[in-house]
Specification:
heterodimer, A: 242 residues, Rossmann fold, four-stranded antiparallel beta sheet, 10 strands, globular, B: 219 residues, mainly alpha, MetI-like fold, 8 helices, binds adenosine-5'-triphosphate, binds magnesium ion
Amino acid sequence: MDLVRIDAVHKHFGSNHVLKGIDLRIGAGEVVAIIGRSGSGKSTLLRSINGLESIDDGQIEVDGEKLTAGQTDLRALRQKVGMVFQQFNLFPHLKVGENVMLAPQVVKKMSRADCEPIAKAMLAKVGLAEKFDAYPDQLSGGQQQRVAIARALAMQPKVMLCDEITSALDPELVNEVLAVVKQLAVEGMTLIMVTHEMRFARDVGNKLVFMYQGKVHESGDPKELFANPQTPELQSFIGAIN
Amino acid sequence: MMTEFTLWDIIRNLITGLEWTVGLSLTAFLLGGAVGLLVLTARIGRFPWLQKAMKGYIELFQGTPLLMQLFLVFFGISLMGIDVPAWLAAAIGLTLFTSAYLAEIWRGCVEAIPKGQWEASSSLAMSWVEQMRYVVLPQALRIAIAPTVGFSVQVVKGTSVASIIGFAELTKTGGMLANATFKPFLVFGLVAVGYFILCYPLSHFAMRLERKYRGSSSH
Ligand SMILES: Nc1ncnc2c1ncn2[C@@H]1O[C@H](COP(=O)(O)OP(=O)(O)OP(=O)(O)O)[C@@H](O)[C@H]1O
Ligand SMILES: [Mg+2]
């Protein structure tokens, strides 16, 4: 059973045809790494999955929630899709615990008493249980990003989208965030991540998607693709990194 | 026969005028703030025609002198056969003026909130109203305080225009006293002191808020 189905999705920014017919199937528990050159449409594809970008054609379905061109009611879909951003985007006026509890309270209308144990459990999962009452700007970048992961998890999504979530971090903070993501993968969370961490994509991912000029150019088992890229574009992309 | 005015008589009358200036300023600021909030909501809301209408409203008030706005309200309402007292016309005119400026100031504050805050709250399935209520406005409010207090100084000074349609606030009182006493320099000197007493603490306060919030942490 596919959890995420992407069918013939097209997206334009003005005259710029950014997604040129994307088809993708992602099963529950799969860990998908999307790689590709800058401008190849990775972020746009990811952001289409929860409707941050509207699509012009095609259809996206997540756990039975459909999304088509021109759709505006995204509340049901977005409750099933969590997202973590490169820039963390924590709410700076709220404490860490409040950041994590806000959406369950406001969107799911849960009481604070019901949210608090969930928030604490999610913060414990990312190793930050003791930061419940801290403000985001009192945390390091790596800690902030882990809070952002906990915040997304608190909505109990079916799938998590991660867009270069370690790219804004100092190198020494990258691993603590990757460790959390790896733990999620081990626990069976469905993950779709745009990443430049090729080693992570190979070791943790079980599907690799190589995007090239707005299309899925090549996809498959990460270890196999890295060892045996079929297309010259993927060969040169991997070559450029190593 | 001319009455002799003592200095105390002058000051006493000016204080009465000052009280009307304060009353008019407060009315304009509070009502203008309330109307401004509505204008803001429409201006940044999701209905394009309302957005455009409010943009026009704001530009109209920012692009014409306050005096003209007051004239138009005063004589416009009279034209409809309704006799408006000067204080009411002044209050309406200044309220509209204030609402347009505050809406624009506040829009700037809302737009200063980074796009990432909208995206994060969107991806958590929050609706526009929820995003506004819990994420954007609390942050915008903080940065709005200093310019809002700063603008209140403009409102206080703006009330002096009401003298021209005959409302006896501080400036109008000063004019009458100057005519009666033949001491315009003394009288208007005191009028200026009156405005300064009102405005200086406000602008000083605004500057302190500005300094406090600039560069400080955001909670
Ligand atoms: N909001 C936007 N408005 C206009 N054009 C955009 C917008 N967002 C992206 N684009 C364009 O769409 C194309 C794909 O962008 P996208 O951000 O998806 O690339 P990417 O693969 O994520 O690149 P990177 O590795 O640099 O993040 C680029 O040409 C980009 O300039
Ligand atoms: Mg990108």
